[in-house]
Amino acid sequence: MAKPTPLQFRNILVAVLAAAGFVWSMVVGLPWWVSAIVGCACVLSLASAYLNRPGAD
């Protein structure tokens, strides 16, 4: 398995933080749209990490 690039590492870190923020927003009871925005940030960060993998064409 290839070593992640710095951009991938940053995207994975943001995805983990966004997932934690999503769980926190659900537990605290913030409005649904805040949770949706944070959830989208998590999904987009994971997608960016995948698309920026080494050897991707």
Descriptive notes:
The protein has 57 residues and is mainly alpha-helical. Helix content is 75%, strand content 0%. Helix 1 (6-28) packs antiparallel against helix 2 (32-51).
Count of DSSP-assigned helices: 2
Report the principal-axis shape: elongated
Mean pLDDT: 92
Rg to the nearest angstrom? 13 Å
Please give the number of β-strands: 0
Low-confidence stretches: none
β-strand percent reads under 5%
Instruction: Please summarize the sheet with the most strands.
Output: none
Quote the distance from N terminus to C terminus: 17 Å
Q: Which structural class do you get from the secondary structure elements?
A: mainly alpha
Percent helix:
over 70%
Order of helices and strands: HH
Tell me the layout of helices and strands:
Layout: H1 6-28, H2 32-51
Short précis:
Keywords: Membrane, Transmembrane, Transmembrane helix. By secondary structure, the protein is an all-alpha fold.
Key features?
single chain; 57 residues; 2 helices; elongated
